[in-house]
Design brief:
alpha+beta, 2 domains, 246 residues, Nuclear Transport Factor 2, Chain: A, Glutaredoxin, five-stranded mixed sheet
Length: 246
């Protein structure tokens, strides 16, 4: 029953919308897969194709964080997470791949326009938090940022107003970012206090797009240095424990 459920939920095979598989050579496999899937799925933007650790399958990464598995000829595709039976139980191969892609995307973006709360004393770890000022659980997490800092954890905020561009929450984040004292403005906004409307050249839209690229679907979303993502609020002590600091 367990195996059946795993296959039903995670290993759904669908015939690709491309007919007529052709033989490919090792150096042509990735290009062939990318071409076939791009032609078959309008709007699909592929960021990378690479051989999977599962023999006979290739991993296809899209720019919105989704992962597709395909046969070498690109004719059959597999959606859902690929799981692996290990000596320690079931491992999620797909999430491991997403973490690697996520870490790379975060590194490529760099530290442009972050609102950061530095660790007190020696920095033992840092986390990237995609946040929405009006999100209740984001506010709850923000209340514990001083505790995280005391434990040696630096918190880097990336703007991810869930309502999207041209909304009140989005403009509020811009006002915080444009404030002379960003931390004071962030603290006030997170407490529900009014922040003076301000406008300036800012990176909020870029950070919002980055969130979509790395698979943020809700806030807070905490991205660890290795690219793994913690979705939702986690108490400070639990987060520190997960980082190996307690």
């Amino acid at each position: 029953m367990l195996i059946n459920n795993l296959f039903k939920s995670c290993l759904l095979f669908v015939a690709a919308a491309v007919a007529g598989a052709t033989a490919v050579h090792a150096g042509e496999v990735e290009d062939t897969i990318a071409e076939k899937l791009t032609a078959a799925v309008p709007g699909l933007k592929i960021s990378e194709v690479r051989e999977s650790e599962a023999t006979g399958l290739y991993e296809v990464y899209s720019n919105n964080g989704d992962t597709i598995f395909t046969t070498a000829d690109g004719q059959y595709i597999l959606t859902g997470d690929l799981l692996k039976v290990t000596s320690n139980g079931i491992a999620n191969v797909s999430e491991q791949g997403r973490a690697s892609q996520r870490a790379r995307a975060m590194d490529e973006f760099g530290d442009r326009g972050l609102i950061s709360y530095a660790a007190k004393g020696e920095e033992k770890a840092s986390v990237a938090v995609f946040t929405d000022i009006d999100c209740p659980y984001c506010r709850k997490l923000h209340d514990e940022v001083p505790q995280l800092n005391e434990m040696g954890i630096t918190v880097h905020y990336y703007g991810f107003p869930r309502s999207g561009p041209n909304t009140r929450s989005f403009r509020k984040y811009i006002s915080v970012w444009c404030a002379d004292d960003q931390q004071a403005a962030m603290d006030a906004a997170k407490q529900g206090r009014e922040v003076e409307d301000q406008s300036c050249e800012n990176p909020v839209a870029d950070q919002f797009r980055l969130g979509g690229r790395v698979g943020v679907t809700g806030t807070p979303a905490i991205v660890l240095e290795d690219g793994n993502m913690v979705r939702g609020y986690v108490p400070a002590e639990k987060l520190a424990e997960g980082l190996g600091l307690l």
